User: What shape does this take?
Amino acid sequence: MALFGAMMVITSKNPVYSVLWLILTFFAISGHYILLNAQFLAVVNIIVYAGAIMVLFLFVIMLMNLNQTIEPKKNRWLKFAGAISGGCLLLVLVAALRNTEIKSQTAMVNTGDIGLIKNLGKELFSTYVVPFEISSILFLSAMVGAVVIGKKDS
Assistant: This one.
């Protein structure tokens, strides 16, 4: 389902349909995370990516009002150069991953405590509590800065 959704993202002519297929792909990837016993990543993927970011993408695409009539025609040589560069990237990836030893590594599916939220929270609020609090202060200052910059002068 993830591969089919990803192919539909690429091949869809309408950008709105492409975003909707991307949301389906994110849900399929969240299913993979659940199968790998990483529930927190699955929930964050659905909430952050499929929820918030895709809504923003959809909002921007609808604001841009993309039409076929106003889109400039692409040169045939530009399409050919894009296909050649994509093929070269595929060859580089295949060459880089050819000699990896994935067969000897096995994943612990539905066993172990690696991806559980309880363990993540325990580590986050005991070992990494100071960097966590510093990052929350950084995010708070960024929000205040965004409000100050975006505020109209009256």
User: Anything to note?
Assistant: DSSP finds six helices and no strands in the chain. The mean pLDDT is 83. Helices lie at 2-11, 15-35, 39-64, 76-97, 117-124, 129-150. The CA atoms of residues 10 and 97 lie 23 Å apart.
